[in-house]
Amino acid sequence: MRSESFRKGVKDGIPIGLGYFAVSFTFGMMAVADGLSIWQAVLISLTNVTSAGQFAGLEIMVMSGSYWEMALTQLIINLRYCLMSFSLAQKFRRDESLVHRYIAAFGVTDEIFGISASQPGKVSAFYNYGAMCVAIPGWVLGTLAGAISGNLLPDFMMSALSVAIYGMFLAIIVPPARKGIGVLSVVLIAAVLSTAFKYFLPFITSGFSVIICAVAAAAIGALLFPVKEESGT
Fold first, then answer.
1. What is the C-alpha separation between 33 and 157, in angstroms, rounded?
2. CA 18 to centroid of chain Cα atoms
3. Contact assessment for residue 144 and residue 38, using Cβ atoms and an 8 Å cutoff
4. Contacts with 100 (C-beta within 8 Å, 6 or more apart), sequence order
5. Helix 51-62 vs helix 67-78: angle between axes, to the nearest 10 degrees?
6. What pTM was computed for the model?
7. pLDDT tens-digit map of 49-76
8. Backbone dihedral angles phi then psi of residue 35, each to the nearest 5 degrees
9. Which of 4, 61, 10 is nearest to 31 (CA)?
């Protein structure tokens, strides 16, 4: 049962690993361009495995932000993983030990959570292990390749490739924004607030502006566009 679950996790994790390679390639380039060494960039990816959190953390490090700023930023950005872990805790088989649950929790990402939650019935932690064995190396190797390329490619090509991260974020927010006015409104509110901080409140660091914009936009969106609960039958 465990070996079968592991093999299925590896199979389902291959597309995730390939996608992670492409995204983390950009992170590796940006990290080296901002002054980090190759192995510092790789170590960050190996111990974090979070795209938005790493990009935000990199900017805070470059701006010499405080530890409190870093901690709060990561808490806000990665808070969703707590909710995903709570959900997976109910999805795992009842006989899974706490050790297996803790190890699987390290590899909880949006994509791995998605394939785990979509499995019929209960899920073995070894399914997550299989997906992690492909996804995490894809993320780390992509960072390594990007960091090495950042030391070799000319500046004009580095500048052009660094735009890829913005394309990734647009690809994340545009599809759901097109489907619902609530998501679109939250995105626009966050964009307006971020612009205001940039030009009218420049003394507020980027890390704290991300925290304030994220919390404020989410709160306004929740008040204006509350999610209606489905009535039970």
1. 12
2. 15
3. yes
4. 92, 125, 126
5. 160
6. 0.73
7. 988 889 889 988 988 888 988 988 888 8
8. 110, -5
9. 61
- Do the beta carbons of residue 146 and residue 26 sit within 8 Å? yes
User: 92-126 as b/e, with b when 16 or more CB fall inside 10 Å?
Assistant: beeebeeebeeebbebbbebbbebbeeeeeebbbb
3-state helix, strand, coil in the chain (%, to 5): 80, 0, 20
The residue length of the chain stands at 233
Q: Which two tokens stand for residue 40?
A: 């510092």
pLDDT above 70 for 144:
yes
Task: Give the span between the Cα atoms of 136 and 138, in whole angstroms.
Answer: 5
Strands (E), the chain: none
Residue 123: strand pairing partners: 92
Give the rounded distance of the alpha carbon of 102 from its chain centre: 19
- Mean pLDDT of the 193-198 span: 88
